[in-house]
Amino acid sequence: MPRARQLRDRIVAESREIVSDNLGNEEGEFQVRLTCAAEIRAKFGGEAVTAARLTGQQPVVITVRQTEATSKISPAWRLRDARGEEIYNIRSIADPDGDGRWIELLCQTGAAT
Question: Which of 67, 78, 70 is nearest to 107 (CA)?
């Protein structure tokens, strides 16, 4: 797992505010929930990764420290690079070491939000 000095990126975690328009639509705009240090690594290798790249999508693994705030992140949220415009859709969430110190988010760029 990364060391603190490897968390060189900054991400913004956003979730949709639930707003009803009385027509059955209940999704609002994305709202910022937290900003934190992270490590963003491109995922390489494997047939699924190659297939995703062919469709303009790039799988990445984003690692953050597990805190009370980051523990609330779910696949319904999205991540955004705080220093750029890249948006990451969360595909899965894991505790890679099983010790509760880190959270790994398997994400994808270039996919619909």
Answer: 78
